[in-house]
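Lecture 7 notes: from sequence to structure.
We start with the chain below.
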Amino acid sequence: MIGFYSTVYIVELALKLSPFPLSVQRKNLEDAQILYRHLRETLEKGNPRLLELTCEQVDEKKVTVLTSEVIAIQIYEKTASGGGSKRPGFSFES
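Predicted structure tokens for the same chain:
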């Protein structure tokens, strides 16, 4: 939950035929980057077919995704102060 941390990093997956992305939070940038690289490598290789993502805060909280359904992955920073976040995706604005 964002209230516990001043900054969290979001790794977001866009799925085929789904209007809502799937997102996983990490407390620090290094962990988020490791997860992002792992997801990217998994998509490049096509193995494993199923990818399990876990929650850092609640061990029992998990989701499994069919890798062939992932069409995009992004990482961005979200801060709790003022509810702000760096805008996901790419833009000319900071």
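Points to note: The helical segments are 29-45. Strands lie at 7-15, 22-26, 50-54, 62-66, 70-79.
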